[in-house]
Amino acid sequence: MKNGPNILIGGEAGQGLVTIGELLSKSLVRSGYHIVVTQSYQSRIRGGHNTYMIRVSTDQISAPRESIDILVALDQNTLTLHQKEVSPNGFILIDEGFWCAGDVCLKIPYKQLASDRYSNIVALGVLGALLGIDQEWLLKTLHDFFGKKEPQVAEENRRVLLDAFAWGSQKGSSHKLPPPSKSPARMMMNGNEAIALGAISAGLRFYSFYPMTPATTIGQTLAGYAGKMSLVVEQAEDEIAAINMAIGASFAGAPSMVGTSGGGFALMVEGVSLAAMTETPVVVIVAQRPGPATGLPTRTEQGDLNFVLHAGHGEFPRAIFAPGSVEECFHLTRKALFLAEKYQGPMFLLTDQFLADSSRAVNSFDIDNLPYVQPFDRKPSFSPAYQRFAVTKEGISPRLVPGFTEHRVVAGSDEHTEDGHLTEDLAVRKVMVEKRLKKATGILQEVTPPEFLGDRNPDILLVSWGSCKGVVLEAAEELGVQGKRVGTLHFSQVWPLVPIQFVSYLQGAKEVVAIEGNATGQFAGLIRRETGFEIKNRIGRYDGLPMTPEFILREMKK
Q1: 3-state DSSP assignment of residue 22
Q2: How far apart are CA 52 and CA 10, in angstroms?
Q3: Which of left, alpha, beta for 470 (phi over 0: left; psi -120 to 50: alpha)?
Q4: Are strands 486-491 and 451-454 parallel, antiparallel or unpaired?
């Protein structure tokens, strides 16, 4: 695997481990390193066992690792659970008051260096020194994080960090980082933050949600920008209200989006059909977690593809995007908003807890020339009269917003005539179904094709979608080192599928393996349904943990 240590910070919720992780990660990114963050947390405010894992490298990396090089144990339970995962050359940082035997343990005098309130800053200072991070980067990041607090608190944070850094500098470390290569300044960003920023850049004006892990931080991020960006963020009383608010805002001319997870999306499904019938643009983010029901609310899975694909009664076109990186979260959210507006209906973005909470070092987005959604024509001309659902060759009707022109806009949830009035004329019903379905032709022409990398005639072709992208690429790289001819085929749009874009890759490989974060191979089944090609070899992970290159390699040996 690529160079650089894998650091796991473990403890109870409320001990400040996320603060340590975020400060260290930001300092690493600002110093010029690449990172992959993986968070694991239980569904509780305090207590339980949580971890914040940071993989760091001078090279571009895109996947978590399993083996731990530096274990920061904030409680005894973390040592018990993870000591066996520490690599042969790794070591453990632990309070001198806890039990830990052997040279592998570096016992930190937390109470001597600071009061309990500042113990997370002690851990940060010692870690920074052992990794060889420039002390000034740590101080600047600490100031940016805590600078607005009371002056005496900020000054005490600074003092504790300097004392802990000095203590750590006296200790030898086999994991001092090599100097990073010179590169443009990068941002630290996770998938949910990228979704929020991508939506803002595309002209989002309304976002509604009911808090549901792991989608909640999309709304929190958007709320932080709401005042500056003329954006309304509404926390609804439930998911039914959330999607209907978004549909209403979109009907009134505001590009709108709503976010949730599987259980919340179950409540939104009737609203999805309402958006389809009224031909109202809306983007739905489904951040997947393990089900059924509440399942594992803070873990990850790719189990909702079939659900989102078939959600909503009746027949109507849709597109489903599944970003595989933080950058794709930004760009595919933009694309979903543009498609929703152009084809006047619901579009979907499938992410999951791993990608939602996984921070990476990201290059700045070039936003100067990015277009934004313009939801309706403010100077229309119609003869003889405006018809909201006029039948057209492409199935796309002119969309006006009530109150912006002298034209009357009529719409409802019942089947309707071209002017929007309710009808039970069965001949009109047939015309309207066909009109809505015509939009699928246009959506097909704008499909994001899958990405093929590797040998054109591989012995093994690894097929993946969504957040498995980086993991599969690193597994393929390792298989290549072992002398195998490997290709990868990754889908960042999972519906609709255009077989001509990828079937030749499937047919040209000696062996095809589908890799998914679910138990039944949902995407492999979808490929078979749409192409007739059966992927017989499948690797699925459904224990709530993220896919890793090591997991893939172990399963392939079986």
Answers
A1: helix
A2: 7
A3: alpha
A4: antiparallel
CA–CA dist 366, 201 (Å, integer):
10
Burial bucket for residue 208 (CB in 10 Å: 0-12, 13-18, 19+): buried
Token output for 119? 């113990």
Q: Rounded mean pLDDT of the chain? A: 95
Q: How many alpha carbons lie under 13 Å from residue 172 in its C-beta half-sphere?
A: 5
Is the overall model pTM greater than 0.70, yes or no? Answer: yes
List, for residues 347-398, the tens digit of each pLDDT value.
Answer: 999 999 999 999 999 999 998 889 999 987 777 788 788 999 999 999 999 9
Which DSSP symbol is given to 546? P
Count of C-beta atoms within a 10 Å radius of residue 510: 10
311 Cβ contact list (under 8 Å, min separation 6): 265, 269, 272
User: Is 95 in a helix, a strand, or coil?
Assistant: strand
What digits encode the pLDDT tens for the residues 432-451?
999 999 999 999 999 999 99
DSSP state string for 183-227? ---EEEE-HHHHHHHHHHHTT--EEEE---TTTHHHHHHHHHHTT
- 240 Cβ contact list (under 8 Å, min separation 6): 267, 268, 270, 271
Give the three-state DSSP class for 426: helix
- Side-chain half-sphere exposure of 458, counting CA atoms within 13 A: 26
Structural domains of the chain sorted by starting position, each given as residue range(s) with its CATH number in brackets? 6-169 (3.40.920.10), 190-363 (3.40.50.970), 380-446 (no CATH), 451-557 (3.40.50.920)
Neighbouring C-beta atoms of residue 251, cutoff 10 Å: 20
Give the span between the Cα atoms of 540 and 303, in whole angstroms: 10
Within a 13 Å sphere around the CA of 489, how many CA atoms are in the beta-carbon half?
Answer: 27
The tokens describing 318, both together, are: 């849709």
Please write the tens of the pLDDT for every residue from 535-551: 999 999 999 999 999 99
Separation between Cα atoms, residue 298 and residue 305, nearest integer Å: 18
Please, which residues bridge with residue 81 across strands?
A: none
**DSSP output for 35-74:** EEEEEE--SSSSEEEEEEEEEEESS---S--SSEEEEEES
